[in-house]
Each structure stands twice: as C-alpha cells, then as structure tokens.
Design a protein that fits this description.
The chain is an alpha+beta fold and about 150 residues long. It contains 5 helices and 6 strands. A 6-stranded mixed sheet has the order 2-1-6-5-4-3.
Length: about 150
Amino acid sequence: MAEDMHRQSVLNFLDAFYSGDIDKAMTYCDEELDSVTHAPVDLFPHLGQKHGRAWISEAIRTQQSYYSSRKCEVKFMAVEGDKVATIQLLSLRKRNDDRMVRLETAQFFTMRDGLIHIHRAFLDSFDFVQQLLGQDLTHSFATDLREAMRS
C-alpha cells in the first residue's frame, strides 16, 4: 500500500516539476530535502548538492530560462519500501537555437512520511554537453586522452 503511494508521489512530483508547477512540485518534497545531481558543477552550477525544498523552485526556474519546453517520460520505475528508482527520458528544447536535446537520467528517491526526503540523479554529462554545443567532442577528447596516457 505504501509502495503505491510512493510510486504515485514520485510520478506526481515529476509531472509537476516538468510542467513548471512549482507549488505543486514542492508539496511532494520534505522540508529537509537532500538532493544531489551528479554532474560537473563548473558546467552546471545549478546542479550538484542542494538542500531544502526551495531548491525545487530554483531548479524549475533555471531550466525554464534555458529551455522553452521540458518533457519527462518515465521509462522504468521500481519501488521497494521507501525507495523509488526511475529511469527517465528527458526532452529539452533549447531557447537560444530551438534545438531539442535528449538525455536519459537515473533518479533515486527515498521517501519519508510520504514525501521525497532524499533525491539522487545521474546523467551522462559528456553526451549532454555535446548535444548542448551541437558538436561531437569524442575525437578531440580521445586524442587528448591518448596523449595523457603515454608514458
């Protein structure tokens, strides 16, 4: 029974978050929300570790400033006790050049009293950067890496 509630709370949170409904998204989060999005904060300063529910409004507004549309498709969800794991496909349309970027994220939630208390997110930041720039960086990095690995 609690697992069904946790599943629905996370789905409702994601729906509210990506539709831009800040007030509704915050209702699904604990006051002491601990969120970590594993990505290079030098490139994405709005990510990294964040504390408190206020982060939700900051994250939504930051994304809305960069992207004209944001969609989230939950491709996988597993719930066990107070733990919820998801794999999502995000589609983000860039404001500055109208290009669509797509990335898969893995997000993990720990619930407390029916609210999201701990949030962890992982994404392929290298692929994301390539999409944001609109260019393949693999060859350049591979060449630099081969040089760095020579003894």
